[in-house]
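User: Structure tokens for this complex, please. No commentary.
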Amino acid sequence: MSSVSSLAAMYQEALLAHHRAPRNKRELAAPTGVAVHKNPVCGDEIRVMVRVEDGRLADVSFGGQSCSVGTASASLMTEAVQGLPVREALAMADNLDAMLSGDPEAVLPESLAPLRSVAPFAGRHGCARLPWTGLREALAGSRLTGG
Amino acid sequence: MSAALAPRSDFPLLASNPGLHYLDSAATSQKPRVVLDALRDFYETANANPHRGAYALSALATERYHDARHTIARFVGLADSDCLIFTRGTTESMNFVASAWGPSNVQAGDEIIITALEHHANFVPWQQLALATGATLRIVELTDRQTIDLDHLRDLLSPRTRVVALTHVSNAVGAITPLAEAVRLIRSRSAAIIVVDGAQAVPHLPVHFDTLDVDFYAFSGHKLLGPMGIGCLIGRRALLESMSPYQFGGDMIEWVHDTHSTWNVIPHKFEAGTPNAADAVALAAAVRYLESLGMDNVRAHELALLELADARVRELPGVTVYGPPPAERSGVVSFSLADVHPHDLATILDQHGVCVRAGHHCAQPLMRRLGVSATARASFYVYSDASDVEALVHALQAAQALFATADSPT
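Assistant:
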């Protein structure tokens, strides 16, 4: 059962700072993959844009509207996967899922630590996952188009 | 007015969670002990398959089921209780009408009217019926207070209108439809059948079906203190008798020949399979509980709380409250706070023991018209009191403080 102290942890400054001033919330020039992912529970919508070059994420950005958790997760994600090989970005998405599901072995870069605070809030996992699901879809689309 | 109308001690979940401020009764109500007892009692003392066995226990189950239908019909002002069909809830009831009445009565060139205020359960079945039959779907727009625009309804009505489906009370903003006025308008300008979503009306307002002059009226048990999985569809006898069955199977047949079958009389024609007798009996217990409180008292209690909550929430900076003034609303406060997403709000409120719904409330057409993806909704019922309102306001202030701190430059 989560408590007021874990609430404070979730809404720690790091997460709120990304909500307040999201990184990479912009249009992407010449994307190789774009995915719009909606959360049917709340109606939120995040659009993830990727440009894959030589199997790496040359650029990634996002748009749309969502709650603080969704926006912060998107912002943190775009910073974390920037420049990574596609394979590693997808692994990171899998690890994020595992972390939210309570897997203590899940390895995440230190920069994504603020998202660990979402784990006690099962009702918000969908918000945190929203951009990562969008990333997977954008990358899948990118592969299909040969990007 | 600050006390609850029904004692919290009547509701086991509330009694065992004294710090809980349950403000999501529009989604589902809490259940009084008498309802849980009735459910248990049916299974412990009367459990057999109704309408089946030639033995006393089955006859008892049949009698309990029959009495439940009678009790619930009386509660909603329906004299002919055969016209009350048990369903799983409002959603199934609406799908039932759209799929059992729709295809043989609606064709290309006809028009179906719904409103922008509808819950998806009274929107999508008609949208799909229109798509399947080639009929045209017309949507009545709303006033700037999120009530059904009767002038627009008047403009849309024509001899081509076959169905008007509208809500009695909006689940998302609580707006009460002036149903008598709408019905007069519809009757004067079309021969359409009138289908009413009463899911948010029957729990909160006195409803008398026989005086409404509508053709179908649906509601759910779980929103009026009853169990989940049982609801009702009321229809006019002539319409119900003219309709083909919705599902086929046991109980609904009169005689099954090798090549064809004939149907049982209403309501059984529309209740294929073993009926949900236990939940019907428990719903009847819920209805008796509400009758003991008095539906006029329920309305008065909710209105007093609503007026308090509406005023207190409006005092907060950056708040937008949707819907008409409290006198024209059921016990719902649907609102947004500037800079705090409703989903964040619900999580923060939860940590203060305050349960509210955040989301589109299964009313995406309405959300589009409001220009928001979601709102937060606090809703009241017989066990709510002024301390729930104060807890809500306190938690909202805490949420604003949290986001204000984060937004200030460091």
